[in-house]
Amino acid sequence: MKKLISANQLTKNYKARCVVDHINIDIKEGEIVAIVGTNGAGKTTTIGMLLGIIPQDSGTIEYWTSDYKKEIGTQLQSTPFFEGYSVEDNVKLFAAFYGISLTKNEIDEKLTAFDLLQVKKTPAIKLSLGQQKRLAIIVTTLHHPKLVILDEPSAGLDPRGQRDIQQIIKRLKDSRVAVLFSSHDMLEVMNVADRVLIMHHGKIMANGSPDGLMEHYQTQNLEELFFELTT
Ligand SMILES: Nc1ncnc2c1ncn2[C@@H]1O[C@H](COP(=O)(O)OP(=O)(O)OP(=O)(O)O)[C@@H](O)[C@H]1O
């Protein structure tokens, strides 16, 4: 599988504190990679560096294309929508940013696929958290990115909302989109990730398929492995 991103020895310091410490990350075409870690482990900083939003202090990142910023879809922890605009108008406005014009039917199809058709006239900022997260994924995939990066996409959601996000991530994979997402939920990671990176204090402690890592470390489940590697 072709590599989309290859980051080598990526490092970030804030003042004298190293928060991401010489990590290597590869993301291949069509794979789902989860990044897990304790609070403050460096996940969001790593994502910011991969997106080109946070400059690294050292290390290199190679992308499959020089125009990567336009070809990655991203949803960070906050989901900013255009205030006062409905769900469908937000979709139209984000599409216009990407230079895409969508017909009414195309918008309805997307909203139906994400179970949002019934709220299409509702102001986006009035949606429930789960609905906002689904809408955020619609708008970040309008331009058919090859890679989508999601920072804690299911944080704060109820079990049904979490399941919806997991299904959306699987659907992205089915359409050959690679996904990098951060999570604190080990069951979610087991359910959807092809590969998991466990981060602790700025370092990657393990990198492999959930099953492969559990076998290697002889643990019953991913949570047990997480505790073993992050204490
Ligand atoms: N702009 C900044 N200035 C100083 N320190 C920062 C800055 N951004 C992040 N940090 C610190 O870097 C460390 C890593 O933060 P980061 O947000 O990457 O962790 P995280 O793994 O995403 O945590 P969480 O799971 O809580 O979201 C933390 O100790 C944080 O306080």
From TrEMBL:
PROSITE patterns: ABC_TRANSPORTER_1, ABC_TRANSPORTER_2. Pfam families: ABC_tran. Transmembrane segments: none annotated. GO terms for molecular function: ATP binding. SUPFAM superfamilies: P-loop containing nucleoside triphosphate hydrolases. Residues 5-226 form the ABC transporter domain. Keywords: ATP-binding, Nucleotide-binding, Transport. SMART domains: AAA (SM00382). Gene3D superfamilies: P-loop containing nucleotide triphosphate hydrolases. It comes from the Bacteria. InterPro entries: AAA+_ATPase (IPR003593), ABC_transporter-like_ATP-bd (IPR003439), ABC_transporter-like_CS (IPR017871), ABC_transporter_ATP-binding (IPR050763), P-loop_NTPase (IPR027417). This is ABC transporter ATP-binding protein. It comes from Lysinibacillus xylanilyticus.
